[in-house]
Amino acid sequence: MTTLDEDDRELLALGTATLYEASGLDCFLDAAFRPAWDGAQVVGRAVPVSAQVGDNLALHHGIEAAGPGDVLVVDAGGAPFGYWGEVMAVAAQARGIRGLVIDGGVRDTQQLELLGFPAFSTAISIRGTVKQWPGTVGIPITLRGRVVRRGDIVVADRDGIVVLPAGEYDRVLEASRARAGKEGAIMNRLRSGETTLDVYGFRHLGSPVRESDPAR
């Protein structure tokens, strides 16, 4: 398993919600992508893969093409097949691949958890695949409207997935640090008894119609 460096750990600690909000970018993946096991999280460089529906040969080529610190990001058309399981996770870990994001299904989720291999998918499925089309590896793909290029930074946790363009990495990290610091100060004000209406200045937006107190 590839060791995370300090910046990688910081990205995971900041979390996908903060990274997305601070980025100012439409960098989130569709909410249909969910972790295959509770607690899965990953950060790494994207290696995009395109696979045919019901065919996982391209994923085997992706394992060969990727290396330490990479995350395979796969367009499999969202089809509920078991494109990925324990055998492929072991092969990926041996090459230092950090995880998988796939618009499609995975299986062997208990084994993936035991291996500590983070997988995020749009389905869990035991349905088998064929091996006929080698697909594409390293060429940009589009996942439900979001373009993913090789070298983009992928961060995934239980809240969701962000894909940050490599050229935006430093800016987004600094903006996320600033946002986290600001939110820390807000939390302190809330703990002291202030309301979110006052802390965020929402009162000028109007007040709701309230039910009258019942007659006594």
From TrEMBL:
Catalytic activity line of the entry: 4-hydroxy-4-methyl-2-oxoglutarate = 2 pyruvate; oxaloacetate + H(+) = pyruvate + CO2
Pfam assignment, any one: RraA-like
Enzyme Commission designation: 4.1.1.112, 4.1.3.17
Domain of life of the organism encoding this protein: Bacteria
Cofactor or coenzyme needed: a divalent metal cation
Class of this enzyme: lyase
SUPFAM superfamilies: RraA-like
InterPro entries linked to this entry: RraA/RraA-like, RraA/RraA-like_sf
CDD domains cross-referenced by the UniProt entry: RraA_family
Family according to the record: Belongs to the class II aldolase/RraA-like family.
PANTHER family linked to this entry: 4-HYDROXY-4-METHYL-2-OXOGLUTARATE ALDOLASE 3-RELATED
Function, as annotated: Catalyzes the aldol cleavage of 4-hydroxy-4-methyl-2-oxoglutarate (HMG) into 2 molecules of pyruvate. Also contains a secondary oxaloacetate (OAA) decarboxylase activity due to the common pyruvate enolate transition state formed following C-C bond cleavage in the retro-aldol and decarboxylation reactions.
Quaternary state and interactors: Homotrimer.
Name the record gives this protein: Putative 4-hydroxy-4-methyl-2-oxoglutarate aldolase
Organism this protein belongs to: Saccharopolyspora oryzae
